[in-house]
Design goal:
- The structure is a single chain.
- The protein is mainly α.
- It is built from 5 helices and no strands.
- The chain binds protoporphyrin IX containing FE.
- Protoporphyrin IX containing FE (HEM) binds next to helix 2, helix 3, helix 4 and helix 5.
Length: 160
């Protein structure tokens, strides 16, 4: 694994950074650009339908990059020998952040799916209950964690 990392280091680090850009950038664009535009829609049913649809597109786009982020991270842990280095605690912290972000993403997907089912049944209140928390708490939480992971990545990159 270390040999592969050394041979393809540029590609592996590039894919890692690109994945972070798409995952974290996608969430920021959704939460602070698209979301505000959806709030202009007066009908709660139509508003929730648009939010649910946009979230579905976002999740489909980010899932491959979430996986690429982890695979490239594993290559870097092995390639740099991070677990045996003085940077092991930062590496574990980044792994913990990825895990929380991933679990949070899975819960968001489940809530969105449930919200969409409620919308199809005409249950707007139920749908709102499922979808509202995603925009208010869960996406902002992943944005903050993502930015922290990027900061730790910058620290690692300038010290390795
Ligand atoms: C899964 C655990 C993770 C590990 C073990 C890990 C490890 C690393 C390492 C070793 C570097 C330095 C690469 C180099 O310069 O050669 C790095 C950079 C980076 N990481 Fe991670 N990372 C993880 C998760 C994440 C997450 C969740 C994000 C953001 C969502 C992220 C974003 C970045 C970025 C943007 C850089 C580039 C920073 C720079 O070049 O200045 N990483 N990461």
């Amino acid at each position: 694994m270390q040999d592969i990392f050394l041979e393809y280091k540029v590609v592996i680090v590039f894919l890692h950074v690109m994945s972070a850009v798409i995952w974290v950038g996608g969430m920021i664009a959704m939460r602070y650009a698209a979301h505000h535009s959806f709030l202009e829609i007066e009908s709660p049913m139509k508003r929730l339908e648009h939010v649910a649809h946009a979230l579905k597109r976002l999740f489909i786009i980010v899932i491959p990059f979430v996986i690429i982020l982890l695979i490239t991270a594993i290559f870097m842990v092995k390639g740099y020998g991070l677990s045996q280095s003085g940077f092991s605690s930062i590496s574990y912290l980044k792994e913990a952040i990825w895990s929380i972000m991933f679990v949070n993403l899975i819960i968001m997907i489940l809530r969105r799916n449930r919200g969409e089912r409620f919308l199809n049944e005409g249950n707007v209140v139920g749908a709102k209950g499922q979808i509202e928390l995603i925009g208010k708490v869960m996406v902002p939480l992943n944005i903050v964690l993502g930015i922290l992971a990027i900061f730790l990545g910058t620290y690692l990159s300038s010290n390795l």
